[in-house]
Design a protein that fits this description.
Blueprint (H helix, E strand, L loop, with lengths): L1 E5 L4 H16 L3 E6 L5 H7 L3 E4 L13 H22 L3 E4 L5 H10 L4 E5 L6 H7 L4 E4 L14 E3 L6 H5 L2 H8 L6 E6 L6 H14 L5 E6 L5 H7 L10 E4 L5 H7 L2 E4 L3 H9 L4 E3 L9 H12 L2 E3 L8 H12 L1 H12 L6 H14 L1
Helix pairs in contact: 1-15, 3-4, 4-5, 7-10
Length: 365
């Protein structure tokens, strides 16, 4: 069988698409990835060994309606090109993960009578997925609440958010060796997504001296490339404890680092949450407050309700109360054990397989 997965704009669309691609290939399918020529997917997808096909796609700026005609022309041109491509490769199904590129790819599939499956990673459905879900054969969700945007509820299936196999591949010992962390130490990983998080970074600089009073604690703080220099200048630690506070701008081996971690503090983006819960890592979640429709807060609520994480508002991380939460998480092993057990109930590890089942069932119908 032949399949096309599509997504673009952010790693949050691309990584779950690649996770599904890997699962479909395990089942004997051949997968192509349709993305934009300039997006991050144009680099990540070939690196993952998946065939890549580029189609230009643009959104329009609502405050500048004059951008709409050009955006529509780009989408219409790419729809025609995608339809011609489908005539050549004859896909059995097209799976769209979000981003503007999914609109021409999904429309072309509809024109050719190819079933479209939409997957929404967040708790609030994105524009492209909302548009395509009207005619899609199935709509797969990470969070049931995202289905409010779907008129035909019979299409909906909750699969969870697929996680890349590389995240599962690393062992705790491999991660500890990579990060140079002793096997018996407590490791806290702090990150705010690929761009970093200013309030989280500043808060941890302020609490660093107190945290480092724990001789068995190691902290790996991933600042984001643009904030690294500023954070480095704010971090004041003695030469004695500085080796236990690992400050890095970007992490290329996140799977290994997560495998090594005893706890994390992070944003509540869809991919971060899926990876944290799949590996059953205790967490404090700090949702990005300016996410569309505040979806990161909605994302986090399910994990908090399950007992797998705590949540804190972004504007409260520079407070003694937040510092006390962090201290509790690293000091209390029973709290961390309870969170790990709660995370197992979310069953994120099975998401790629569940979504692949939906794809195969749709094709058979």
């Amino acid at each position: 069988m032949n399949f096309v997965v599509s997504g673009g704009g952010t790693a949050g669309h691309i990584n779950p698409a690649l996770a599904l691609a890997s699962e479909l290939e395990k089942r004997g399918g051949h997968v192509w990835f349709a993305g934009t020529p300039q997006g991050v997917e144009s680099k990540l997808v070939p690196e993952a060994g998946v065939e890549f096909k580029a189609f230009p796609a643009e959104g329009f700026r609502r405050r500048h309606p004059q951008t709409l005609p050009h955006a529509l022309k780009v989408i219409n041109d790419s729809t025609k090109k995608a339809a011609q491509w489908f005539n050549e490769i004859k896909p059995d199904a097209v799976i769209c993960f979000g981003g503007y590129v999914c609109i021409p790819v999904g429309r072309a599939a509809e024109k050719r009578g190819i079933p479209v499956i939409v997957h929404e990673q967040n708790s609030v459905m994105g524009m492209a997925n909302k548009y395509l879900s009207k005619k899609a054969a199935r709509v797969a969700l990470t969070y049931n609440v995202a289905g409010e945007a779907v008129a035909d509820k019979s299409k909906i299936v909750v699969t969870g958010n697929p996680v890349r196999a590389s995240v599962f591949a690393a062992t705790r010992q491999e991660g500890r060796t990579y990060a140079k962390i002793p096997s018996d130490a407590v490791m806290l990983t702090v990150f705010g997504g690929s761009l970093g998080a200013a309030h989280i970074n500043k808060a941890f600089c302020e609490m660093a001296s107190d945290l480092m009073k724990r001789p068995n604690l190691y902290v790996r703080q991933i600042t984001g490339p643009k904030q690294y220099d500023a954070v480095r200048s704010q971090l004041h630690l003695s030469d004695e404890v500085l080796p236990r506070w690992q400050l890095i701008p970007y992490e290329h081996q996140m799977g290994k680092v997560l495998a090594a971690s005893d706890a994390v503090v992070s944003r509540a983006g869809a991919t971060s949450l899926a990876e944290i819960s799949a590996l059953h890592i205790p967490a404090i979640l700090v949702p990005y407050p300016y996410a569309t429709a505040n979806h990161q807060t909605t994302n986090a609520r399910e994990y908090v309700a399950a007992g797998a994480a705590w949540m804190e508002d972004d504007d409260k991380v520079e407070t003694p109360e937040f510092a006390a939460k962090v201290a509790k998480l690293v000091d209390d092993e029973q709290v961390r054990n309870d969170m790990r057990e709660a995370a197992k109930s979310l069953k994120t590890r099975d998401a790629a397989s569940k979504l692949a089942d939906v794809v195969m069932e749709t094709v058979k119908k």
